[in-house]
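Is this the right way to post structure tokens for a design question? Let me know if I should format differently. Anyway, here goes:
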């Protein structure tokens, strides 16, 4: 802690949002920015993500966040001197019913109106673009050629390098204990396991741990955690990037993209209760493998090269949280900003981080009007007044599990 007792800003959480936010704050001219992480930077979900970065969101907020983040990744080397390995591969979202077709076409119209390069592909056009997909299994889909993916580990390395090079003070293995507030209620310091850091500006991030971080800071944050699994098949020529693009089967909640000559696919079980889980649910993984093989026949019979699971965050309405922390009475805690990407750390992380930095320094952001995305949209039970973004993984509708369910999960038993 030597020399870090006073700061112009303290960012809590060393994942994608916290890391890039700290760097944006330095770029905004703050002389001393401290990044506090209770473990190691990127050790959580940020380094175990699938890296999908799409702008085909179901709301205008999601589209704008995705477009801004893609632009950041494309220009990152010029901005930061490092990059996250962004590849614009193209993303198909196939429809499997007439209702999905109608909904997708309405989204394409909305997305196009916001400036996104997206179009509706007929069955024939989609089959020609993605030869690896089983013909005749869908009714067409929306397609954005600029959607792509990053390398999650490289992204973590990028924001660490940018922070260290530009003078962000990084305090790993340092835990937030609480906030010190003044007589007027505003923040005056951050109590950590390494001591007090005096500051009038704090940004709270933390992925699936953000609810705990918020509680220690004296605010309630409607963020939960859920198991997310990712697998990569063995290589096969039928799975080359010119044969299969990125795709998302919304009806089953599974997505995929090429990876190391094979196919990477990810999923979350909508019937699981919320809570931390990093072990593999092999029975559910096997079920999803059968669905992937139905849509991408080249994966049938292939072994898996890698499989991993991580606890990732989500919000009840699948939208980010950006705004001031609120006390128990619902009043803003002056100087404290809450930032959550709601499980979309790779996809929205840079935009969410920039907005959080803007809010912390000026109270507004040119990236996006987030006046409706604050904590005040949730009631005391975590229910949001906003319509959920429909383009999201099937996370639970609650952010906490019943005590007996949580205890069962700790013993390693999957509940469905």
């Amino acid at each position: 802690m030597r020399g870090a007792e006073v700061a112009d800003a303290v960012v809590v959480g060393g994942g994608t949002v916290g890391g890039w936010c700290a760097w944006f704050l330095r770029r905004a001219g703050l002389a001393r920015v401290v990044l506090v992480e209770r473990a190691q930077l990127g050790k959580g979900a940020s380094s175990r993500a699938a890296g999908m970065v799409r702008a085909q969101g179901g709301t205008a907020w999601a589209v704008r966040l995705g477009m801004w983040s893609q632009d950041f990744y494309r220009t990152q080397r010029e901005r930061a001197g490092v990059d996250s390995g962004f590849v614009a591969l193209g993303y198909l979202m196939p429809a499997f019913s007439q209702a999905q077709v109608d909904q997708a076409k309405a989204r394409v119209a909305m997305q196009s109106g916001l400036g996104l390069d997206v179009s509706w592909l007929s069955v024939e056009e989609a089959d020609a673009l993605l030869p690896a997909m089983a013909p005749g299994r869908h009714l067409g889909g929306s397609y954005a050629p600029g959607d792509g993916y990053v390398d999650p580990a490289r992204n973590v390395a990028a924001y660490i390098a940018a922070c260290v090079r530009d003078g962000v003070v990084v305090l790993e293995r340092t835990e937030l204990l609480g906030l010190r507030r003044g007589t007027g209620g505003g923040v005056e310091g951050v109590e950590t396991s390494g001591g007090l850091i005096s500051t009038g500006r704090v940004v709270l991030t933390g992925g699936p741990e953000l609810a705990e971080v918020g509680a220690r800071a004296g605010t309630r944050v409607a963020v939960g955690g859920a198991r997310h699994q990712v697998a990569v098949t063995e290589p096969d020529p039928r799975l080359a990037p010119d044969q299969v693009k990125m795709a998302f089967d919304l009806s089953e909640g599974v997505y995929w993209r090429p990876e190391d000559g094979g196919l990477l696919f990810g999923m979350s079980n909508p019937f699981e209760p919320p809570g931390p889980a990093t072990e593999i649910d092999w029975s559910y993984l096997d079920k999803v493998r059968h669905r992937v093989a139905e849509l991408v026949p080249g994966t049938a019979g292939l072994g898996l090269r890698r499989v991993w699971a991580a606890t990732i965050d989500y919000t009840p309405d699948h939208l980010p949280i950006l705004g001031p922390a609120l006390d128990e009475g619902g009043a803003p805690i002056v100087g404290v900003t809450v930032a959550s990407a709601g499980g979309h750390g790779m996809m929205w992380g840079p935009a969410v981080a920039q907005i959080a930095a803007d809010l912390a320094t000026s109270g507004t952001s040119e990236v996006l009007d987030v006046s409706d995305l604050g904590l005040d949209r949730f009631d005391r039970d975590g229910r949001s007044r906003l319509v959920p973004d429909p383009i999201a993984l099937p996370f639970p509708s609650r952010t906490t599990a019943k005590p007996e369910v949580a205890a069962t999960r700790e013993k390693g038993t999957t509940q469905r």
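Format looks fine. Someone answered above. Worth noting: The chain has a mean pLDDT of 93. The chain has ten helices and 20 strands.
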